Each structure stands twice: as C-alpha cells, then as structure tokens.
Description:
Layout: H1 2-16, H2 36-39, H3 45-81, H4 85-108, H5 112-126, H6 130-138, H7 140-152, H8 167-175
Amino acid sequence: MRIMRFLVLLCLVLISSPVFSQGTDSTVIDFERMDPVLISGSLDAENIKNYKILKRRVVKTMPYAKMAAFRIRAMEDKLATIKSNKDRKKYIKQCEKAIKAMYTEQLKNLTKGEGQVLMKLLHRETGKTSWQILKNYRGTTEAIFWQAFGSFWGHDLKEEFDPIVDYQIENIIKVERLE
C-alpha cells in the first residue's frame, strides 16, 4: 500500500514537472520545503502526528536555544577579560540572576518533551551539552545533582544533538527558517 502511494505521488510529480508540461502553465514543487514524513512514503497517522508534535516543540524552543547561545558567547567573551576568580564568579552569578529573572516563568511552562528538545538544540547552537555548561559555570557537584534530578524525570544532560539521528529536527529548522 505504501509503495502504491509513493508511485502515485511520483507520477503526479513527473506529470506536473516542467520537463513534461507543454505550455508555460507548469507546477513547480519545492522539495526543500516539503516535510520528509510526507515524501518518505510513511504516511501513517502515527508518524505524521509525531512529526507535528516535534515540529511544535522545535518551533517553541528554538528561540530559547538561540538566546542561550548568544548569552553564553557574550559571557565567555566578558569572562576572558576578567582576571580574578572572585570577579569571574561574581559576574557568572550576576548573569545567572538576570537570566533567571527574565526566563524562569516561561521555562517553567515547558513540557518534558520540549525540555528534551531544548537540550538538544542547546547543544546544536553552543557545541556544548547541558552537562558541560553546568560543569563549567556551576561546578561538578551541582552538575551531578542536576543530572540526577533530571534523570528522575527522564532527561539526560549529556545528550548530544546528532544531525544524522535528529534529521527531522534539522529539517524543521531548515523548512521553518529558524536559523
């Protein structure tokens, strides 16, 4: 049945392509903007539903990942100019306090799945896992605490973004022009 659907889709694409059309009335299909779920032939309702849920999560959490990456880069640039450890710790605390004041209420409303997507996007944007960020700025003990706390809820702070495994997330970012 899936093969039949795929063949029908392929025939429609070929018939409507500019190569086979006679006049200037042709339909151009932008395959870059099509969802891979719809192209792949796996048109069952469950896959489409899961893809739409993932798409909603990525669209919702991507601005937070971008903001975090910007803040981390800015903080690292400023920390490079600060010499004493006392002043560095003081600056990190100030940054943390400002970020908490601005985003705590919004981030509290994220679902478990949105949190997992946010951690992957954070790794994608910064090149560091949530574990590495916590360890660098808050210390190993606190990173271990949050890893244990997160694992209780099904999160892994060491989870990385892999463009091959997470191809749907990468495609959603590309299609929705979130970069």
